[in-house]
Write a structure and sequence with these properties.
The protein contains 17 helices and four strands. By secondary structure, it is mainly alpha-helical. Helix 3 crosses helix 8, helix 8 packs across helix 12 and helix 16 runs antiparallel to helix 17. The chain is globular and about 70 Å long. It comes from Streptomyces coacervatus. It holds the Pfam family HTH_31. This is HTH cro/C1-type domain-containing protein.
Length: 357
């Protein structure tokens, strides 16, 4: 409903966040029909352990920890007051605590005994069972999912306030995106064969300003991005996601499927461009075998919507941060689920096939 902020819940099976339906009626407990069936098979004893552990609970938390740690490091470098430093540290510590619980649950899902967990955690088996029972872990992760959903609600540019650790993490993400945007434009410039002076003459921009854009010191406006990209025979659409992130623009939570897919694909192609468009074999080696050359080609070519494991591996291989791209991937995933609820059958986003998350 227009003007109403969506509410998120955590899937009882895979723990992924999903958009909860509004209005009367029974609320959904699972993000998809598939997860509901898997949970039923698990209760019936028919679900294999390896299938249950396909989505590590700790992976997402580790990605968010990376952004929070970056905010702490930024605060330290800036010489901010000790009160602010400790507030940042508290954010990291709380997320580490969530991660420990998720890591234990991942291990238990993989068949690790309580005795092995206790040895790894350096506690007794009784303490481990008491501290991390599955029901308590799920409740804690559900609470965390609500906290993270609240953080990602705004759809306008975010400006960090005093002591706003999440805002600082988003500011860090904007700085990273600005550097990537500059790298992408710099690559297109080098490929064009034009000198900086020639670019300045054709765009009415100063040579020093152009150089600062290429180095990431200045974040250009969208008209400037389009002018430079077109001058270099590039596609401005490939730079749109980097531009939005560089300006701290958080996309709305709901999109039509084609729009959400286009945003994700633009972000991935933009990172590939910022990395100098390395050959797919080079990307595969950087991903350490997590992606095949064919999968990389299909993802960057817009023929396949990757699952999160593939997306994170590709982003990392291209020198990006998975936490920065996660909201765009979620927009595709959740929009797709909304179209399937209630599902008439398995659907596919237009002009692309989707890998399961």
């Amino acid at each position: 409903m227009a003007g109403t902020s969506p509410r998120y819940d955590s899937c009882r099976y895979c723990q992924e966040r999903f958009t909860q339906r509004s209005g009367p009626g029974r609320k959904r407990e699972y993000c998809s029909i598939d997860c509901r069936r898997k949970e039923q098979r698990k209760r019936d004893g028919r679900l294999e352990r390896q299938e249950h552990s396909a989505l590590p609970l700790g992976r997402r938390i580790a990605e968010d920890l990376q952004a929070l740690a970056a905010a702490l490091l930024e605060a330290e470098y800036d010489g901010r007051p000790v009160k602010e430093l400790l507030r940042c540290a508290d954010e990291v510590a709380r997320e580490v605590d969530y991660y420990r619980a998720a890591a234990v649950q991942d291990a238990r899902n993989q068949g690790v005994s309580w005795e092995q967990v206790a040895e790894a955690a350096r506690v007794s088996a009784t303490t481990a069972r008491t501290r991390w029972p599955e029901s308590r872990v799920k409740e804690r992760l559900k609470r965390r999912a609500g906290e993270r959903a609240a953080v990602r609600q705004p759809s306008a540019p975010l400006m960090p306030g005093p002591g706003d650790t999440e805002g600082k993490a988003l500011s860090q993400a904007a700085e990273r995106a600005s550097v990537k945007l500059g790298s992408a434009l710099s690559y297109l410039h080098r490929a064009s064969g034009l000198t900086v002076r020639e670019v300045a003459d054709q765009t009415s921009l100063s040579p020093s300003y152009i150089s600062r854009i290429f180095s990431g010191e200045r974040t250009p406006t969208w008209p400037v991005v389009c002018t430079l990209a077109e001058l270099f025979d590039g596609d401005p659409a490939e730079l749109s996601a980097l531009f939005e992130s560089a300006h701290g623009l958080v996309p709305p939570g709901r999109h039509a499927i084609p729009d959400a897919v286009a945003r994700l694909q633009a972000a991935l192609r933009g990172l590939h461009l910022a990395a100098g468009r390395p050959q797919f074999g080079v990307v595969r080696r950087a991903a350490r075998g997590a992606l095949s050359t064919q999968a990389i080609s299909e993802i960057l070519g817009g023929e396949m919507i990757p699952g999160w494991e593939q997306t994170a591996a590709l982003v990392t291989a291209l020198g990006g941060w998975p936490a920065d791209v996660r909201p765009l991937w979620e927009a595709v995933h959740y929009t797709f689920l909304l179209c399937l609820d209630p599902p008439e059958g398995p659907g596919q986003p237009p002009a692309a096939r989707s890998e399961s998350p």
